[in-house]
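Predict the 3D structure for this chain.
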Amino acid sequence: MTLIPQIRPYHPDDVEAVYQAVVESKSELMPWMPWCHEHYSRSDTVEWVTKRQEAWENNVDWSFAIVDASGRILGGTGLHRLDLRNGVGEIGYWIRTSATRQGVAVAAVGLVCEWAFRERGLRRIELMAAVENRPSRSVAVRAGFTQEGILRERLLIRGQPCDAVLFAKLLTTTTTDAG
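Done. Predicted structure below.
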């Protein structure tokens, strides 16, 4: 079954729904998402959601709720580590457990990339995933990202340095004839 997700900026009234999605998915998120920890609480969600508008307005982070046609929160995605001078951002995402393996992440990543290229003038979107995070690496490939390399000890997860795979998607692909 494939869900057809939509993306939209977070609303202040998303707190409870986001919190419930994180609680449902905690065991799957904790190994890869440093923000999701054993003592994750409603106040963590309140802080996150309430800071989204300011982060958006200051071009620090463009965050989106991933929702289904009925408005149910399926997860979150967005662009961070924005380098507007060079037209580069890094995408991140998480999907609630009950919505995984249904094409949600791939579709949502595609929507964010299209939006960022069209509306924000980005020319390169990077995606970083821990080498051991096979589901996230699969999303990157299925969403049209190209693997560029492995960065040693690039991520710090639960206090442990982890190697990461760097993927990128370009606004345009330039090919050069060597011949």
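Residues 174-179 have pLDDT under 50 and may be disordered.
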